[in-house]
Amino acid sequence: MLVVDVEKFVSPEQEPWFKVDEKDPVAYAKIEIVEAADMKPSDLNGFADPYVKGHLGGYRFRTKIQKK
């Protein structure tokens, strides 16, 4: 959440006028792709090595390229 202090924003003094509240994570998740089938190559010629993209809540991830 972004909080802006309007009084500090219009003040001539050089004080920080906003802050970002950062919360510590409550948990960690380790996701392991064990097996995949029928993965489509990313190039039109069919020779690109595939990878897996996904998301969990607001977090996005991508696996390393899997060599054929």
How would you describe this protein?
The chain is mainly beta and 68 residues long. The protein has a domain at 24-68. Helices cover 7% and strands 21% of the residues. It contains one helix and four strands. The protein has a two-stranded antiparallel sheet. β3 (53-56) and β4 (59-62) form a beta hairpin. The radius of gyration is 22 Å and the shape is elongated.
Task: Produce a short descriptive summary.
With 68 residues, the chain is mainly β. Helix content is 7%, strand content 21%.
List keywords for this structure.
mainly beta; 4 strands; two-stranded antiparallel sheet
Backbone structural class: mainly beta
Element order: H for helix, E for strand: EHEEE
Q: Tell me, rounded to a whole number, the average pLDDT.
A: 74
Helix content: under 10%
Spatial shape: elongated
Distance between the termini: 44 Å
Any low-confidence stretches, pLDDT <50, length ≥5? none
Beta-sheet strand percentage? 15-25%
Number of E-state strands: 4
**What would you report as the Rg, rounded to the nearest angstrom?**
22 Å
Major pleated sheet: 2 strands, antiparallel
**Helix count, per DSSP?**
1
Order of strands, main sheet, comes to 1-2
Produce the secondary structure layout:
Blueprint: E1 2-4, H1 6-10, E2 18-20, E3 53-56, E4 59-62
Antiparallel strand pairs: 1-2, 3-4
